[in-house]
Amino acid sequence: MNTSNLKYLVPNFFTALSLFLGLSALHLISLGNFYPAAWLIGFAMICDFLDGKFARMLNAQSKFGAQFDTLSDFVTFGVTPGFLAYSSLLNEVHIVGATISIFYVFCGGYRLVRFTLKNKTTSKKEPFIGLPIPAAAGMIASSIIFNSYFTDAKLIVDFLLISTFLVSILMISKIEYLPLEKGKKLSKESKFFISLAIFSVILAIKFSYFIFIIWMSIYILYGVLRQILLIFKKQTHKIIKPEDTSI
Q: pLDDT tens, 100-146?
């Protein structure tokens, strides 16, 4: 084997590990072990971040890696969270829960295909169009973890139903979510989220079930609020644009 090709094994290893965690989570869900399955999705999110990070660091990006990552993401962050949401809580609302769960999977697949096609036309690091599917999966997983410490079953079912539908819509929307890094430099948003992550890790020592869902909610709302501000700035710019004063 050409030693120069060994670098491609590193990002693909983390992609494979993410897929393994997703499949393991599916197995746990089928056994009714929803809480550990949700945590496996959380760990898979870390692997998904690392595969892209190492691919860029080692200059080990490839067509195979991109396709493998898409497949892994669809299973781990598309099929698995949808199955988790329905099997754990949404089955209590029968056809509505099944419809929302299936809708989530389809939206996740659409989001991945759109991302893959967009990446083929440009190599420039641009904002993500629509909520990234790992973040959507994280919202579902964190809701299941939070549910383990919550006593009001009806309220958490309603919350999961609404949040699953909302993250599905956000995935296929055109709302921009900035990547955590732009080349070798960190954006202001990146520094904020990294600081938030460090702070969350400290708090998670005592409130692990609570921090995960708060962190995911902040990230998701950040994209929505940022989009609203961008629209507001554009409208304001149009209003204060100098009028033609020529006679």
A: 999 999 999 999 999 888 766 455 556 788 899 999 999 999 999 88
- Torsion from C-alpha of 31, 32, 33, 37, nearest 10 degrees: 90
Residue 74: other Cβ atoms inside 10 A: 20
Q: What is the pLDDT of residues 173-196, one digit of tens each?
A: 988 887 655 544 555 555 565 566
Model-level pTM? 0.83
Stretch among 74-83, 91-100, 128-137, 206-215 having the lowest mean pLDDT? 206-215
Alpha carbons 56 and 97: distance in angstroms, whole number: 39
- Phi, psi dihedrals of residue 215, rounded to the nearest 5°: -60, -45
- Please name each of the domains of the chain with its CATH number: 3-239 (1.20.120.1760)
